[in-house]
Structure formats: structure tokens, C-alpha cells
Design goal:
heterodimer, A: about 120 residues, mainly beta, B: about 110 residues, 7-stranded mixed sheet, 11 strands
């Protein structure tokens, strides 16, 4: 069965510092992986996704993630944090069942705080 | 292009009541998925609709039911509300296909007293 583990429920960085949010997945089939961001009192916005092909995926707002099959990881990074990056971040894996699109299984989320 | 919209934004109900939440898909999208996000948790899959048929279901009891209409909008109905049903309910629309991205609405926050 597919699952997602996000290490660290809360990460705090200084403005301008590197952001690293960790995600490990479990999947019996080649995974499709996603990172979503949720701002307070809002829905989820897609940051980036990995389906097939290049393992380094670039997303919006300067974020990127690298799919590492050997480590079953899909960590999210950003070289320089901005105050506006403060939000909750969710890693998700697509679960597929025959004949349908499948659904997403989410991690519990990592809340990112950015200090001035 | 109109994004995914949900109504109402907030709702307060009492235990045992029934509630209906609504979702309008993004233009051109034919698949709707519903998720429940409890406080401090990640979203959990409730069910998915495609061409007005349920197309997959998570680990939720039958008192959670849904509909999809010909215009691809959707409803989530919850009967016999329980305190644990208090959560943010998220609707996501997409095209059908494994590589397609699900686009989320802002959610409906339900409080059951």
C-alpha cells in the first residue's frame, strides 16, 4: 500500500536561508509524487509534480524537488526563503486503481515558519 | 478561466443533522474528488466522481455520499453528523487520466456541535 511520511511537523528558517522539507514515500508501483502548499484558511495549491522523466522537478515560486528512487524520497527545496513562503506544505503520492484516475494520499504536512 | 469554487465557506451543524456541500469544477474538468482534512492532518480521500458515477472511494462510511451533475459540479452529503466530522472539506477537479493534476477549491469548514 502507498503511504507518505513527512519528517518534521514544523520547520523554522531565517529569511534568505535554505528551505528543505523532507518527504519519503512507500509505493509498490512507480509513484507519481506531488507537493502542495496551503496558506491559512485556503485550499491546496500545486507547487510541483513528478510523473516520469527528469527526476529534478522545478515548480512555482522557486521551489524544486528531486525524486530519488533508491532513497524513496521526494524532498522539497528552495535556495532562499522568503517571508511569503510561510505556509503548510503537503507531500502526496498518487494511488492508481484500474480504470480510474486514482486519488492522492497525503502526508501529515510540514508547517514552515520564516523568521525575519 | 474559473477555478474550483465551493459553497458554503463555513457551516455549523449539530450532531445528528445532515449537511450538503457543493463544488463547481474548473471549466473543462470532468472528474471531481472530495477530501476531508481534520485539524492538523493531511487531507484524506473520501470519493471520486467521473461522468456522474462514483469512481473510487476511501475508508469512509456510507453516510458520506455524493453526486455529480451533467455540468460536472458535485455535492457531498453527510448524514447523521458526528462530532468527528468537524473538518475542512476540500473538492478537487481534474481531467480523467493518471497524469492529470487535481486542482483544489478553497474548502468548506464544517463544525459539528
Amino acid at each position: 500500500a502507498q503511504s507518505v511520511t513527512q519528517l518534521g511537523s514544523h520547520v523554522s528558517v531565517s529569511e534568505g536561508a535554505l528551505v528543505l522539507l523532507r518527504c519519503n514515500y512507500s509505493s509498490s508501483v512507480p509513484p507519481y509524487l506531488f507537493w502542495y502548499v496551503q496558506y491559512p484558511n485556503q485550499g491546496l495549491q500545486l507547487l510541483l509534480k513528478y510523473t516520469t522523466g527528469a527526476t529534478l522537478v522545478k515548480g512555482i515560486n522557486g521551489f524544486e524537488a528531486e525524486f530519488k528512487k533508491s532513497e524513496t524520497s521526494f524532498h522539497l527545496t528552495k535556495p532562499s526563503a522568503h517571508m511569503s513562503d510561510a505556509a503548510e506544505y503537503f507531500c502526496a503520492v498518487r494511488v492508481y486503481y484500474g480504470g480510474s484516475q486514482g486519488n492522492l494520499i497525503f502526508g501529515k504536512g510540514t508547517k514552515l515558519s520564516v523568521k525575519p | 478561466e474559473t477555478g474550483v469554487t465551493q459553497s458554503p465557506t463555513h457551516l455549523i451543524k449539530t450532531r445528528g443533522q445532515q449537511v450538503t456541500l457543493r463544488c463547481s469544477s474548473q471549466s473543462g474538468h470532468n472528474t471531481v474528488s472530495w477530501y476531508q482534512q481534520a485539524l492538523g492532518q493531511g487531507p484524506q480521500f473520501i470519493f471520486q466522481y467521473y461522468r456522474e458515477e462514483e469512481n473510487g472511494r476511501g475508508n469512509f462510511p456510507p453516510r458520506f455520499s455524493g453526486l455529480q451533475f451533467p455540468n460536472y459540479s458535485s455535492e457531498l452529503n453527510v448524514n447523521a453528523l458526528e462530532l468527528d466530522d468537524s473538518a475542512l472539506y476540500l473538492c478537487a477537479s481534474s481531467l480523467q487520466g493518471y497524469q492529470e493534476t487535481q486542482y483544489f477549491g478553497p474548502g468548506t469548514r464544517l463544525l459539528v456541535l
